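Long-time lurker. I teach an intro course on protein structure, and each term I like to show students one example going from raw sequence to a predicted 3D structure in C-alpha cell notation. This year I'd like something fresh instead of my usual example. Would anyone be willing to generate the C-alpha cells for the chain below so I can use it in lecture? Attribution to the forum is fine with me.
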Amino acid sequence: MIDSNTLVMFSFASILLALAPGPDNIFVLTQSMVKGSRAGVVITLGLCSGLVFHTTAVALGVAVIFQTSTIAFNLLKFAGALYLLYLAYLSFKDASKTKLNTNQPTLHMGALYKRGVFMNVTNPKVSIFFLAFLPQFTNIANGHVTLQIFTLGAIFMVWAFIVFCLIALMAGKIGAWFAQTKHGEKILNRAAGSIFALLAVKLALAER
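-- Reply from a regular --
Happy to contribute to a lecture. Here you go:
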C-alpha cells in the first residue's frame, strides 16, 4: 500500500504535468475549439486509455525496449508523426468547408475516441517518461512494485482526465464563440492543422 504522503506528492506532480504544454493537452485544446467540448472530452477518454498501454509497458518492463532499441523507438514515433500529418491534412481540408459542427450530436464519437488512443499510444516518449517518473514513487516496503506502478498509473490517468476535461470545456466555449465570427471556423481549422504539423515535426525529430 502506497503511503498517503507519497500519493499527495504524486498527485500534485501529476496535475502540474497535465497542465504543462505538451502534445496531448494541445491536442485536446485544438480539437475542442474546432469540434466542441464534448468532442474534447471523448478525445480525453481516448488519450487516458492510451496511458493504460504506457503504464502496462512500464510495469511489465516493455518500455525499456523503447529506451534501448532505436528501431522500435523510431518505428513508433514515425507512425505517430504520420498520423499527426494526416490530422493536419484533415484540418486544412475542413477549413474550406462550411460552419463547424460544434457540440452537434452528428459527431462520430467513436472515431474521436480512437483518435485520442492512437495519438497517445504512438508517442514512445510517454513510455520512456513513465519509465523514469513512476518508479520514483514506488517503495519495495509498500508491497509489490508492479501493483504500485499500476496504481500510480491509474492515479495519473484520473488527474490527467480531470485537467484535460477542464481544458476541453474552456476551449469548447472559446471555439464556439470564435466560430460565430467571420471566417472564424476557417481560422480555427487552419490553426489546428498548423499545430498538428508542428507536433508531427517535433515528434519525428524526437530523440530518446
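Some talking points for your students: Residues 145-179 form the longest helix (35 residues). Residues 100-106 have pLDDT under 50 and may be disordered.
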